[in-house]
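Anyone able to model this chain together with zinc ion?
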Amino acid sequence: MSVDLVLKNSKIYLYGRVIDAGLAIDNGRIVKVAKESNLPQASERMDLDGLLVLPGAIDVHVHLRDQDLSYKEDFYSGTCAAANGGVTLVVDMPNNKPVTMSREALRERMNIASRRIVVNVAFYSAFPREIDEIGHIIQEGAKAFKTFLSHKVGGINPNDREKLLRAFRELSKNNVPVAVHAEDGTLLNEKIRELKLKGRDDFRAYLEAHSPRVEVAGIRGAIRLAEEANAHTHICHVSISDGLKIIFEAKRRGLPISCEVTPHHLFLSSQHLERIGNVALTNPPLRSSADMMYLRRTLQKGLIDVVASDHAPHASKEKEGSSVWDVSAGIVGLETTLPLMLTMVNKGQLSLSTLVRVLMENPAKIFRFKRRGLISEGYYADLVVIDMKKEWTIDPSEFYSKAKFSPFEGWHVKGKPVKTFVNGTLVMEDGEITGKPGYGKIVKR
Ligand code: DOR
Ligand code: ZN
Ligand code: ZN
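re: yes, here you go
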């Protein structure tokens, strides 16, 4: 037998252990993991110099934009950023222009993406106006749905609880997960109005509006929907200890809930917001250092299901403005998430197996990506090669993302993705994109 590619002289993360071995790849799949002498003939043999091979990261919270928002990011720039960050599959959020909320809109988005993506992409849809349309969107290939409780994105007003519940029930019936931006819109918008009337427009006002209370209310609302509809509900970017505690309690009761945290909430607090300014403005906002520490502790203990970037690019002009209400919220993270997490591993703050669980295995399980998220025979050859010893400084001017700013600018990190393989093809090597637009595949339901 001769295969397409053999990766030799590597350390491979295999079922919780790191072993000295190599990999054979054929037709985009891993066909063998073995010692070098037991690997087959190959058209190409690549020596990995003893570097670590992990499953490619799966980032389930990415705003790739494109279409009318392509000035912020497009499928090519966003997936190049993913490749550079060791991310082989991203799940694209629906708050686009036009909003992904119908079969036609999703089809159009997939059409455009298929010619431009360098890594694999799956799609969220927002809820459509008509519940009946949900089934069609699923048929078209949406992997999951996303709903914002903070404001209306898509066809259902977050105040319309009856309709939301019907939508959740429809997803439960189809066994499709729903991700929730859990900030309670009623409380949030009341507070924003009140603060604006008082002429408040500083970071403190922003934090008062997007308060822990607003997030707790959002999370409670999401959990109630999950429980009543028995729908798998994924709570995005949990930023506060009280939020996580409620989620852990719901999980103990056996409810179908998963939770996600972002690197910015794990590494930054509201003190950074005051210091860094608009670049660090995001929803939910950066929180107290006590919250940040709680997130880290629960991550270390293995209680967090997923770490995702919430990669939310904006034009630099949109991050300017003297009033905080005029500034676009969002932090880019595709190129920093894995390095920041690897740095935790290097510092002894996180086990490699927890990293792999939250960035690769759990995202694949929760969002039902078959044959991804693991290194195993028969699985897709979505892989990242890591130089664990490489120390470097985060420089956003080198990002492939169009948003060349980050609250992590200047951070010293240790551990770098140096090669990214998508479906068996090398798409990034030493920070250079070797993949062509269209190499990535659309992963449908
Ligand atoms: O900060 C954020 N930015 N939070 C969101 O929920 C949306 C995102 C965006 O799309 O820019
Ligand atoms: Zn969100
Ligand atoms: Zn988001």
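The pocket of zinc ion (ligand 2) is lined by residues 181, 236-237, 283 (CB under 6 Å).
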